[in-house]
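Following up on my earlier message about FE2/S2 (inorganic) cluster. Here are the inputs again, as you asked, copied directly from the submission form:
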Amino acid sequence: MARRFRLRPISGDAGVASEAPNMIDRREFMRHSFNTAAGVITMASLGAIGFASLLMGQADADGGDSSVRFWVPTGAEDSAWYGDLHLEQMEFQSFVDAAATSTTGMAGASGVWSGLPVNVIYVPHDENSQTTLEENKPRFQFMDGYNESGAYVGSGYEVNEKPEYETLSIHDNMIIIFSRCPHLCCIPGWQLVANDFTSDQWSPGGGDAGGNKLFCICHSSRYDPTVIEKNRNRNRINGSEFDFIGVKRTGGPAPMGMPLIPFEVNGGIIEALDDFKDWYTFCE
Ligand code: FES
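Thanks, got it. Here's what our run produced:
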């Protein structure tokens, strides 16, 4: 039976505080909260509570193992290529097949791993990385990361240079991203809404131009899932800072990008690894 959570009122949210406690099924929450038009309405009505605290450490459902499962947001059943695969284990080949139908050779999907919202992105890196950089020839790019004050934090190249990041080395033309927006913790999606940022296009350089951005509909933050950088974030409760390897924020109010989750392809199934759990605490 799906677990249900009591939503506590937050300060300044009189509408919630004056009513009987809301109860929400974790599956209902996830299904409505990925950044579709329907999802953002749910986010607005619930307020900015500590959603990650509801999700972290709940591996008994919505995955329950190391496999990453498709998560079909409300309203995307007919539009997303994985619309009929809700809660099915992600098979690597399904991304290869979906990518073959796109202009850029990229494919992405919303998913859930141990109760955490993720986006899984396939990029034809091996095919394109030895050719000249050009439009619509996507590959992973490794760039420098700077904190909110503009100070240099580190380089995305560290995934290939530092042993502690070894499990994040690019492989299988794929990355997995922990998908909570560092602005106010909405859940960005990939091609779940249609605009210039989400169109099936790619431009090199890690800027805001081109399409195929992860897009947060709450306040329009954008992230380039092909740019790997090192950056810094903090746990909002205790203030402790941590450096992480993640994808780059290219625009909008989010102060930095979102962290990667290491994974393996095991028997054709995408399975995530929990090497960097601290990186997923910034909405705590
Ligand atoms: S919560 Fe994502 S832009 Fe505000």
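One observation from looking it over: The radius of gyration is 18 Å. Hope that helps, and feel free to reply on this thread.
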